[in-house]
Amino acid sequence: MLKLLLLLSCSSAPPPAPAQAADPPLPSVVWGTEALPETPAKWPTRVVAIGDLHADLPTTLGVLQLAGLVDERGQWIGGDTIVVQTGDQTDRGPDSKEVLELLMALQGQAAAAGGQVIVLLGNHEVMNLRGDLRYVSPQDVQDFGSPQQRALAFSVDGALGAWLRERPMVAQVGDAVFVHGGITPRFAKLGISGMNALASGVVSGRLPGTQLGDDSPIWYRGYLQGEGACQELELALESLGAERMVVGHTTQRTGRIAVGCDGRILGIDTGISSHYGAHPAAVEFRGGDAWALYPAGNEDVLDP
After folding, report:
1. Euclidean distance between CA atoms 24 and 67, whole angstroms
2. d(CA 155, CA 164)
3. What is the DSSP annotation of 195-208?
4. pLDDT, tens digit, for every residue of 230-279?
5. Residue 149: which residues within 8 A CB-CB, separation 6 or more?
6. Residue 42, pLDDT above cutoff 80
7. Is the Cβ–Cβ distance between 276 and 93 less than 8 Å?
8. What are phi and psi of 292, to 5 degrees?
9. Is 161 in contact with 125 (CB distance < 8 Å)?
10. What span, in angstroms and rounded, lies between the C-alpha atoms of 21 and 281?
């Protein structure tokens, strides 16, 4: 049963990427994956993209209500809307369990109404599944009852762990590719299915965690922080057959959607959780036309 917890994590620095001496070679064997989303090649009527939630149930419900996707009870009212949540559902806040359970429930409710909820892996989900708990708040552990009970919930045999291990790392809807951090040309050569197979191999333990290093789709920040990144972005999009990329991970402290490279990159981590200031925002695609959704009103976003 969903509950609203108001205790907040005090940590403020973004997690560092795992240390690694050099880029590991990407695997030549493609591992199988489960439950990857089937999305239409052309733009459906309405698509909504939502960034990092960081274990904050009240603000998660707030941004879903802002986008007209749930009612005051947290029940789906989005009809046939396709929602893409770009990772980092866990850590920093106290409500990992409730946020994940909400998204799990909304997947079923949306499907029954003709819609779809696509939940992507972020670096924090991968960290939790691999036992890296540096950014788990004490309140979050208490919410599960004990460290052991939380570990069991995120294990292969736990409800949350089993569900998360089936989530993709990358999704494409219409002409947009959605991912937590960013897709470099090196990873783009794997294609959508190849990147998702890579993530599946890492979270299952079949592949080492170094396969998802600091330039991987769950960690990369270069398109929103680096100079001269538009050329690299162009190469990656060309490999993927896409026109734009929608990413989270790099928090926009202004609370505004970031737009770069003539609309070909959108940064949607606006700091939705209370840990980052509670700045609700989302991006809505109306037949491919992008709009930023804010509490003060909606704004048209530059399209490529």
Report:
1. 40
2. 10
3. HHHHHHHHHHTSS-
4. 999 999 999 999 999 999 999 999 999 999 999 999 999 999 999 999 99
5. none
6. no
7. no
8. -90, 130
9. no
10. 37
> What is the Cα Rg of the chain in Å?
18
The separation between the first and the last C-alpha atoms of the chain, rounded to the nearest angstrom, is: 42
Over the stretch 168-206, which tens digit does the pLDDT of each residue have? 999 999 999 999 999 999 999 999 999 999 999 999 999
* H-run or E-run covering 36: none
Question: What's domain 46-300's architecture?
Answer: 4-Layer Sandwich (3.60)
What's the one-letter identity of residue 290? A
Q: DSSP states of 266-297 as a string?
A: EE-----SGGGT----EEEEETTEEEEEETTE
Pair of tokens at residue 78 = 């989005």
Buried b / exposed e along 200-237 (16+ C-beta atoms within 10 A): bbbbeeebebebbbbbbbbbbbbbbeeeebeebbeebb
Around 148, how many Cα atoms within 13 Å sit in the side-chain half-sphere?
0
Domain ranges, ordered by start, for the chain: 46-300
Rounded Cα gap, residues 223 and 259, in angstroms: 10
- Phi, then psi, of 172 in degrees rounded to 5: -125, 130
Strand ranges for 120-196 from DSSP E: 170-173, 176-179
Which of 93, 171, 100 lies closest to 129 in space, CA to CA? 100
| 178 in Cβ contact with 84 (< 8 Å) | yes
Q: How far apart are CA 203 and CA 127, in angstroms?
A: 9
CA neighbours closer than 13 Å in the CB half-sphere of residue 142: 9
What are residue 279's phi and psi, to 5 degrees? -115, 85
Q: Report CA-CA distances (Å) from 197 to 98, 143, 167, 239.
A: 27, 32, 11, 17
Q: Are strands 170-173 and 244-247 parallel, antiparallel or unpaired?
A: unpaired
Which two tokens mark 60? 């998660």
CB distance 232 to 184 below 8 Å: yes
Residues 6+ apart with CB under 8 A from 9: 55, 91, 92, 93, 94, 135, 137, 139, 140, 275
